[in-house]
Amino acid sequence: MLAGLLAASPSLASQSLRITTPVGGTTVSGMFDVAGRASADTDVTLSLAPQTFSECGATVHDVAVRAGSDGNFATSIQSAVVADGVYCVIAVVADGQLSTAVGDITVLNSENDALDGPQLPTESLDDDPVTDAALAPLADASVLAPVVLGAAATLALVVLVFGQLQRKRRATE
Predict the structure, then answer these.
(1) Is the peptide bond before 129 cis (omega within 30 degrees of 0)?
(2) If we measure between CA atoms, which residue out of 101, 91, 95, 110 comes closest to residue 27?
(3) Which residue has the higher pLDDT, 171 or 57?
(4) Residue 64 to residue 47: CA distance in whole angstroms
(5) Residue 97 gets which letter from DSSP?
(6) 59-66 long-range contacts, Cβ below 8 Å, gap at least 24?
(7) pLDDT at residue 170, as a whole number
């Protein structure tokens, strides 16, 4: 299949087969869409191949899709099928006689760890009034520090006074 990519004429490929989504420089995570245009009612093989030094390597994941009567094709690919890195999305038709590729697609699965099954939406606790109310007394450390220091000084003074009173009491006995 890679040989077909190398053998295809760039001008013919750009006129007859084109990937419109994703565009080069895109970062993807989770399910991402791949769409484009080919000849009507044509089988299209979409592949992911690692990219090194601006060159597409051997394909590591393939998906078959059929272009509609209008020539448009679209599918979604799960990014978790490949490791994090930079990839080419390659489209091939006519048993490799015509192909095109879009490079510099960054797969970043660590941003969206693949989880099995449906996932429930979550909300941020940034504006949670319960959390804010619980932390409100501790929010201003400039007030808390003098209060703690004053309480410690008062306790030390009380211990000193009782110590002096105890000393005088022993002296008078």
Answers:
(1) no
(2) 110
(3) 57
(4) 9
(5) T
(6) 59/1, 59/2, 59/90, 62/1, 63/34, 66/41, 66/42
(7) 84
CA 164 to chain centre: 67
CA dist 81 and 61 (Å) reads: 7
pLDDT in tens, 57-66: 999 999 999 9
| H runs (alpha helix) in the chain | 2-7, 10-16, 129-135, 141-172
Give the list of residues 6+ apart from residue 132 with CB closer than 8 angstroms, or none. none
SS3 107: strand
Q: How many CA atoms lie within 13 A of 6 on its CB side?
A: 7
Which structure tokens are listed for 167?
Answer: 């000393």
Strands 18-21 and 31-37: antiparallel
Quick one: how far is CA 155 from the chain centroid?
54
In eight-state DSSP terms, residue 69 is T
